[in-house]
Structures are given as structure tokens and as C-alpha cells.
Amino acid sequence: MNTIVSIALLIIGILLIILGVSASESFSSDVSRFFTGSPTNKTVWLLIVGIVTASIGLFGMFRGSKEN
After folding, report:
1. What's the pLDDT tens digit per position in 55-65?
2. How far is C-alpha 59 from the geometric centre of its chain's CA atoms?
3. 36 vs 33, 45, 47, 59, CA distance in Å?
4. What is d(CA 26, CA 5) in angstroms, rounded to the nearest whole number?
5. Cα–Cα distance between 24 and 47 in angstroms, integer?
């Protein structure tokens, strides 16, 4: 059961990272980068949450394989 949850977290994290990269290439992110030097908050949060979620899923997969 833990392996299934870990795989789901890994997939969700990868999808959030893809959405974050896609959002970083959007027009609003370009405008924000022009005026502030950084992308929009949405882009940053999608990337951060995606990386954390994928890391938790990956860690859970390795931890789950050692227990079995």
C-alpha cells in the first residue's frame, strides 16, 4: 500500500513540475520577470511543491522497498 501512495506522490510531483515549467514560459511570467526579475509566485510554488512532492514519493519508494 505504501508503494502505491509513493508512486502516486511521485507522479503528482512530476506533473506539478511540468506545470511549473510550463507556467514559467507564459506571458504573465515573462512580464513579471521583466519588472521584478523573477517569475510569478504561481510558477515558483508549483515548482517548489512539485519538487517536494516528488522527493517524498521517491523517498517512500526506496524506503518501502527495503521494508519488504
Report:
1. 999 999 888 66
2. 14
3. 5, 17, 18, 35
4. 32
5. 9
Q: What pLDDT was estimated at residue 44? A: 92
20 contacts: CB under 8 Å, gap ≥ 6 = 43, 44, 45, 46, 47, 50
Domain ranges of the chain: 2-67
Instruction: Tell me the three cell numbers of residue 60.
Output: 517512500
* pLDDT confidence of residue 8: 96
Q: Which residue has the higher pLDDT, 57 or 38?
A: 57
d(CA 16, CA 55): 12
Provide the whole-model pTM.
Answer: 0.83
Going 36 to 42 to 45 to 47, the CA torsion angle's sign is negative
